[in-house]
Amino acid sequence: MNPPSPLLVTGLSVGYRQRQVIDQLQLPLLQPGQVTALVGPNGAGKTSLLKALAGLVPARGCLQLGSTALHALRPAQRAQYVGYMPQFAAEGVALTVLESLLAALRSQSSQRNPSDAPASATPIERVHALLQQLGIAHLALLPLDSLSGGQRQLVSLAQSVIREPAILLLDEPTSALDLRHQALVMGTARMLAQQGRIVIAVLHDLNLAARWADALIVLRRGSLYTSGSPVQTLTPAMLAEVYGVQARVQSCTQGWLQIVVDGTTAGDPP
């Protein structure tokens, strides 16, 4: 079995309606085994970047996963390598949790050559194993529309990872969740990264990013402002220049950082 490959992103450009959102973006090498948080103010291009990586919006540039040129693949082919968790789950889907995951597996098998299909486990066994791993096996027979917001997020995470992608993209996975479900979702994302995946999550809560991410990519106006570990990136100077806030960055007794915002900076927001 080959070791997991990092993801190289160079020269990435995304535009909508003749407006350039991201222009010639080059990211640091995105490593397997890590949770990378995409952060930045509203309108910085975080979701556009995530959708471009997933192949959901037109984009130019190079996306290279080991020897595989993802940018050259059709969307259905790229989906074999990339799992995408949208910010909002689809409403009105008349399926149970189990049925929705089996449908995702059937979609995968229709794109693969039969000789490439794994023979070790049946689809039912794969789904039940994943639900057990995520701690939501008790939800298997429930309709999607009957789930709470936190349960829907965990099921959406399962839907994005059931195909066993090398890259997992999470768009605001903790939005509108209570503290317990935020910890469950981010803890699960970290567990999935530790299995050798590249996990990239858009996060607005910088304290969550400081707690759960191994690396941060800070975007500003569609460009890379800085990147690195939480200690390297989450500084008062960055928070003032990128977010327009006066803030203190403190170390918790557990070892991670905590940001305390005291007010806004003078002048127009960034």
TrEMBL record:
Keywords: ATP-binding, Cell membrane, Membrane, Nucleotide-binding
Gene3D superfamilies: P-loop containing nucleotide triphosphate hydrolases
InterPro entries: AAA+_ATPase, ABC_transporter-like_ATP-bd, ABC_transporter-like_CS, P-loop_NTPase
Residue stretches making up the ABC transporter domain: 7-246
PROSITE patterns named in the record: ABC_TRANSPORTER_1, ABC_TRANSPORTER_2
Coiled coil: none
Recorded GO MF terms: ATP binding; ATP hydrolysis activity
Keyword ATP-binding part of the UniProt annotation: yes
Protein name per its UniProtKB record: ABC transporter ATP-binding protein
Organism name: Comamonas piscis
Phylogenetic classification of the source organism: Bacteria, Pseudomonadati, Pseudomonadota, Betaproteobacteria, Burkholderiales
